[in-house]
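Propose amino acids for all 178 sites.
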């Protein structure tokens, strides 16, 4: 419940992440150069989290793999300045706006139930989009992402330095990619 905001720290930051996330359980483990950090809302009353904002800013110089499971939330994920190689987003009855990273190669998968998801692709990023949806409404900017092989693709996708591979899956959801 509540609102989730994800963004970036200043480039000069020495922290991995900072934020206000309220009552959460955290798990941190290290294996070589890899650090795994898991944050999970404590199982207190769902009603207590309504109207609360959970804010998490991440270091833009660190390669990230994000695995987000959100429920009845309003989420704003501004990943534009982050180096995200993998994004897994699973959401239920929610409203989510994602701004994709503007650099690197990102593989993203969105699995939504009764949700509204808007995925913003920066103009400097080429994208390939595939959708496996039931009753979902899917609105793709076909002026920018052309129909191709059962999906949609930027004309320069195969040669682009900055690109996004986006897989959409959902039931009774609304997806918009622009």
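Proposal:
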């Amino acid at each position: 419940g509540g609102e989730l905001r994800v963004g970036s720290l200043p480039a000069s930051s020495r922290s991995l992440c900072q934020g206000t996330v309220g009552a959460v359980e955290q798990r941190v483990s290290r294996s070589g150069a890899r650090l795994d950090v898991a944050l999970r809302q404590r199982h207190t009353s769902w009603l207590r989290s309504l109207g609360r904002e959970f804010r998490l800013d991440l270091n833009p110089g660190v390669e990230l793999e994000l695995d987000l499971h959100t429920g009845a939330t309003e989420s704003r994920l501004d990943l534009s300045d982050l180096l995200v190689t993998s994004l897994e987003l699973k959401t239920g009855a929610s409203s989510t706006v994602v701004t994709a990273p503007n650099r690197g190669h990102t593989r993203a998968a969105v699995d939504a139930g009764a949700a509204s998801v808007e995925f913003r692709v920066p103009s400097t990023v080429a994208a390939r989009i595939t959708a496996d949806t039931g009753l979902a409404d899917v609105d793709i900017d076909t002026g920018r992402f052309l129909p191709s092989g059962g999906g949609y693709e930027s004309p320069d996708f195969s040669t682009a330095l900055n690109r996004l591979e986006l897989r959409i899956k959902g039931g009774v959801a609304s997806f918009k990619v622009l």
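Residues 140 and 177 are 5 Å apart (CA to CA). Residues 46-49 form the longest helix (4 residues).
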